[in-house]
């Protein structure tokens, strides 16, 4: 067994919900200029879950194409990162066994640390593969971001799932071993068990994100990481796309560099296009930024990318990787664009109805309204069990 093989991402697949809400609809409702959202926070639309969608249905839709392409041989670990869990005990990925055919000879675990969870999954996967390069790990990051109606957080909702196949000798991104870490006890965003909507101190969270990104960068350098000038692009966690611009400017200035708008646009512009219309997908957001970059950039072969992961509460990680020769053959650009373009736009009343719907708690049989056109749906909740089906 060798421990020197490169480790990284060999496949990346994305799914989002059936519905989306345009921020112009929200702006009208809130009585604000739509440019506050389109320009001010850099969001045009956000994905909204249908009555019969949740993190399991979108995760299954993201992961199935990976299983179809690679089979399950070698997948001995499935890590599902989410902060929108559907159960306090059972890992959401266990539902995927019956939906997409995961192997039984596997460990299947749910991970949580706000939006950072997907990166935790990726790094834990890299560690397992370093121990045994024949091991493959399916990492899934899926979330539905929800804030209270008529609050500043409302325009920063969204939903998506990104599934990644992490392997030795990867086909898309080879990860560097260096990684910069930062964690601290901060109350910037949290969701107590009894709430369906997050609580956030918006301004504190924006500042905490920037400080954490800077500290993670400083640690990355202490660990022998690359120079700022080595990166062809920076993929940031994007709760709203303007946040990536703010954080990159902050990072450059913290290192005594001038942050010219054109240089910032060149470094992160392409990473923001999917997030701009999907909204905050928490754990998936950073990886949606990577997908958008890979789908649009001219040849990135051998280019080095930076990744800046932030999860409120808070944990941040700065890490890096090199784009592998031949990566374009492994992309799913058409499917990614179709997932975004095929969403049905909601009117405000329907959005509000979906937002206010509560899960039944009485243990009786409750069929779910049939809405989604996506491959999997939550068919019912019965006896406190969630029943899923293929569409
Ligand atoms: P707000 O107070 O409504 O907005 O909330 P604002 O008044 O600060 O305006 C936002 C921007 O729009 C400002 O620009 C305005 O100038 C501009 P900035 O000063 O920031 O550059 N603006 C306009 N621009 C053009 N035309 C106009 C116009 N009007 C105003 N007409 C806030 C903003 C982000 C605080 C709010 O949406 C919020 O609380 N969101 C949720 C928290 C959040 O996303 N925090 C991000 C960092 S924390 C994080 O990333 C973790 C997270 O993903 C959770 C996790 O880890 O699980 C959230």
Describe the structure in your own words.
It is a single chain. The longest helix has 21 residues, at 202-222. The protein has one domain: Thiolase/Chalcone synthase (Peroxisomal Thiolase, Chain A, domain 1, 3-Layer(aba) Sandwich). α1 packs across α2 (34-41), α3 (55-70) packs across α4 and α6 (202-222) packs across α7. It is of the alpha+beta class and 391 residues long. A hairpin with an 8-residue loop joins β15 and β16 (376-382). The protein is built from twelve helices and 17 strands. 3-hydroxy-3-methylglutaryl-coenzyme A binds at residues 33, 35-36, 39-41, 83, 114-115, 152-153, 155-156, 188-189, 200, 202-203, 205-206, 209, 237, 239-240, 243, 280, 282, 310-312. (3S)-3-hydroxy-3-methylglutaryl-CoA binds at residues 33, 147, 246, 280. This is Hydroxymethylglutaryl-CoA synthase. Belongs to the thiolase-like superfamily. HMG-CoA synthase family. The active site is at 83 (proton donor/acceptor), 115 (acyl-thioester intermediate), 237 (proton donor/acceptor).
């Amino acid at each position: 067994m060798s421990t020197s093989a490169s480790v990284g991402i060999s496949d990346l697949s994305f799914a989002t919900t059936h519905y989306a809400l345009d921020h112009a609809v929200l702006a009208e409702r809130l009585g604000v200029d739509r440019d506050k959202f389109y320009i001010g926070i850099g969001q045009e639309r956000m994905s909204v879950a249908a009555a019969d969608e949740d993190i399991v249905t979108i995760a299954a839709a993201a992961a199935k194409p990976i299983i179809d392409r690679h089979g399950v041989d070698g997948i001995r670990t499935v890590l599902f990162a989410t902060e929108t869990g559907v159960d306090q005990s059972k890992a959401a990925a266990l539902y995927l066994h019956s939906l997409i055919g995961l192997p039984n000879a596997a460990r299947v675990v749910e991970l949580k640390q706000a939006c950072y969870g997907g990166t935790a999954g990726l790094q834990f996967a890299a560690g397992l593969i370093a121990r045994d390069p024949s091991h493959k790990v399916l990492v899934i990051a899926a979330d539905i971001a929800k804030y209270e109606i008529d609050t500043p957080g409302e325009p920063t909702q969204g939903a998506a799932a990104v599934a990644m196949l992490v392997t030795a000798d990867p086909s898309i991104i080879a990860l560097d071993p260096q990684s910069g870490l930062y964690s601290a006890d901060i109350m910037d965003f949290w969701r107590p068990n009894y709430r369906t909507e997050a609580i956030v101190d918006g301004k504190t969270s924006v500042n905490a994100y920037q400080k954490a990104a800077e500290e993670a960068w400083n640690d990355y350098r202490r660990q022998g990481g690359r120079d700022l000038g080595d990166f062809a692009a920076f993929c940031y966690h994007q709760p709203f796309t303007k946040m990536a611009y703010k954080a990159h400017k902050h990072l450059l200035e913290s290192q005594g560099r001038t942050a010219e708008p054109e240089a910032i646009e060149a470094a992160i512009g392409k990473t923001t296009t999917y997030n701009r219309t999907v909204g905050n997908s928490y754990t998936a957001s950073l990886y949606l930024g990577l997908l958008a970059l890979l789908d649009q950039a001219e040849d990135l072969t051998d280019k080095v990318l930076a990744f800046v992961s932030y999860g409120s509460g808070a944990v941040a990680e700065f890490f890096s990787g090199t784009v592998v020769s031949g990566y374009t053959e492994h992309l799913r650009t058409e499917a990614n664009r179709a997932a975004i373009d095929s969403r049905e736009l909601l009117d405000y009343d329907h959005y509000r109805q979906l937002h206010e719907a509560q899960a039944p708690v009485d243990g009786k049989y409750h069929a779910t309204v049939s809405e989604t056109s996506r491959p999997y749906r939550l068919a019912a909740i019965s006896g406190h069990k969630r029943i899923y089906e293929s569409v």
